[in-house]
Known about the structure:
heterodimer, A: alpha/beta, Rossmann fold, four-stranded parallel beta sheet, 17 strands, globular, B: alpha/beta, MutS, DNA mismatch repair protein, Chain A, domain 3, 2 domains, six-stranded mixed beta sheet
Amino acid sequence: xxxxxxxxxxxxxxxxxxxxxxxxxxxxxxxxxxxxxxxxxxxxxxxxxxxxxxxxxxxxxxxxxxxxxxxxxxxxxxxxxxxxxxxxxxxxxxxxxxxxxxxxxxxxxxxxxxxxxxxxxxxxxxxxxxxxxxxxxxxxxxxxxxxxxxxxxxxxxxxxxxxxxxxxxxxxxxxxxxxxxxxxxxxxxxxxxxxxxxxxxxxxxxxxxxxxxxxxxxxxxxxxxxxxxxxxxxxxxxxxxxxxxxxxxxxxxxxxxxxxxxxxxxxxxxxxxxxxxxxxxxxxxxxxxxxxxxxxxxxxxxxxxxxxxxxxxxxx
Amino acid sequence: xxxxxxxxxxxxxxxxxxxxxxxxxxxxxxxxxxxxxxxxxxxxxxxxxxxxxxxxxxxxxxxxxxxxxxxxxxxxxxxxxxxxxxxxxxxxxxxxxxxxxxxxxxxxxxxxxxxxxxxxxxxxxxxxxxxxxxxxxxxxxxxxxxxxxxxxxxxxxxxxxxxxxxxxxxxxxxxxxxxxxxxxxxxxxxxxxxxxxxxxxxxxxxxxxxxxxxxxxxxxxxxxxxxxxxxxxxxxxxxxxxxxxxxxxxxxxxxxxxxxxxxxxxxxxxxxxxxxxxxxxxxxxxxxxxxxxxxxxxxxxxxxxxxxxxxxxxxxxxxxxxxxxxxxxxxxxxxxxxxxxxxxxxxxxxxxxxxxxxxxxxxxxxxxxxxxxxxxxxxxxxxxxxxxxxxxxxxxxxxxxxxxxxxxxxxxxxxxxxxxxxxxxxxxxxxxxxxxx
Lengths: 316, 437
């Protein structure tokens, strides 16, 4: 029963896919199936709906989550009315989303639900706080496509990453790209005196400005533009950039490597715990990668266990 | 006029509105939609409700905090109640909303009929705020659920179960329908409670007072909350001011620059609004009378956006006020330095003529600040003015009644006290004596 034990050590875990059809939903269902609900209260929700509705476009199955008896789940009014097992209503949020308000309920029997929870990281955090009275031990968050923000340590304590052929159809490329995300997740926590210089993604950096500032705090996103400027002023002086967390880094691997080669360092204020990486070797366009090679190469590269949970029917 | 229309009034209601510690978004909406009251009896009723919580804030703060905590759960379910009333069959989410409201109301002491509503939605007497179509609603429901559990693929059984659920929903909706009106009243009462508690806390936070309704306006020790906060941040005190006015007797306020005339006028306007929306007012004591219409004419920065010159905008504002006065009803008209942006000759003529135009209006209370000397039959007030020998640093903001309508020539003295270039001010003195005295 790989990595489920690790999940239980945290109060909130987000499951994030690096691409559509990277196997995130299977991953979430895999986890839910194996949770010891007898002595654990679990709530599950997703963020945003934009990614998920495109499923109708690509024609692949709609992501349905199987909730088990006794589990809490949050979804929009619309989806709650559409499909669900018999469930007891606990809360209806004040916040309105495109699909209506967010409904929190407890499943009284096992069944499939369409998840479409709070629409922003802020709303998600508010929802998590609103669960306070229900005695929830673990919150699972289905992070929608390109919404890494749910994985921010500001929202959830830990994360599971799912990647696959849908992200890249070439094993080498897939391993490289995934490893880069894993590397960012593993960025070290900043330790040292408070940086005196703060910049934002709109700031322009030059050598004169950085004089006497070996550490610079980046407020908001670290973009290619900003990193390029930082790289270009790197010379004899040291430079360490501090960002909020890995979800604030929006720059290309090549540029990041060049920055590091010149002696630059990147660190974070809050660190995420990556619990596992799951792979889906099948892409929606029919490409199938060799699962064993993929798992082995990725695992070697990132130094973490990698699971193909579809192929390997791990025991429940 | 609704509260939302006066929140952005330049008199500064916005500041107090932002300081209001409402617990629910619904109460905020209800407050913004409140109509201005013109009946003193109605205002006193609202005050009585707020006073209750003011006493509670002093006597039992813990109870107040408990009420406020519960009120966080207040949701606007008027849409659900409207469809219930209109005969719709509700679904689980809507039943949940109603049960939630009823239990909230009961816990907040608004108990009328709520036990009956709760008993419909809590057939097992569990006394918890959650909801689903309970098995105990019908033996058939229980039987079908068990059957579907055993054989999930039997479409016919599923269909039967759905039909039975629909039947129960209709039944519950019918049972709840007679309570729709009372539920709506309860919903509004809870919003009212949230607002009253927030108003009571405002009384404590800002040292507000409850005015009495009377036949004239007489205010002691009034202050402008926002200006006072700004001054306090600088370690300064706000000097409280007394003022009074009557219907049919125009009042002008004259006096030195920086003498607080505009702030006094803003405070008067704010106090009048607060009174007519059921808020306590920033003063030590006050007797107030309600008006059908309150008009505040003050220059603001919005003119440029609308492409009007400040003079044109001001003239139009006053013009609209005159129209309102002519339409009848009791009007309070507060005008800050009318025609100040034009030349003094025409300006003086415009102000004098405005007073004449509005003379004899028995239902009008007019307060006007000005720099121009204009004689009129009404009451004239003057800012006490600069305290001599303090280099322009100490101003006595009190307003005193004066028999002379002659505007005091204090600008040069103030400039001297401020230490402005002496040659310039001396020359101005010479020119003034030569040309005007």
